[in-house]
Write a structure and sequence with these properties.
Number of strands: 0
Order of helices and strands: HH
Largest sheet: none
Shape: extended
Helix content: 55-70%
Radius of gyration: 19 Å
Length: 85
């Protein structure tokens, strides 16, 4: 595979999830979210040196992310026309 190729060949693709039941898909999604949260927390802990400082920094980051996400959603919704039912 060349270094400029972004899409891997089919033999390197991740396994599909079409065979999973909805509850299994949700469980997999929750595991992926939890793993991502662990990466973020571990990064704060490594950078700040203590669990307490990492917890505070992680909570502040989550609050900022939530506020930015909410603001972006409001901007997008304001740009849409009202739905007529």
């Amino acid at each position: 595979m060349s270094t400029s190729q972004l899409i891997p060949p089919p033999d390197l693709a991740p396994p599909g999830i079409s065979h999973l039941a909805p509850t299994e898909r949700m469980r997999l999604w929750a595991q992926l979210v939890a793993e991502g949260d662990r990466f973020i927390y571990d990064g704060f802990r490594q950078r700040l040196g203590s669990d307490e400082a990492a917890r505070r920094a992680c909570l502040q980051w989550l609050e900022r992310r939530d506020a930015e996400s909410t603001a972006a959603k409001i901007r997008m919704l304001k740009g849409r026309r009202p739905v007529v039912t």
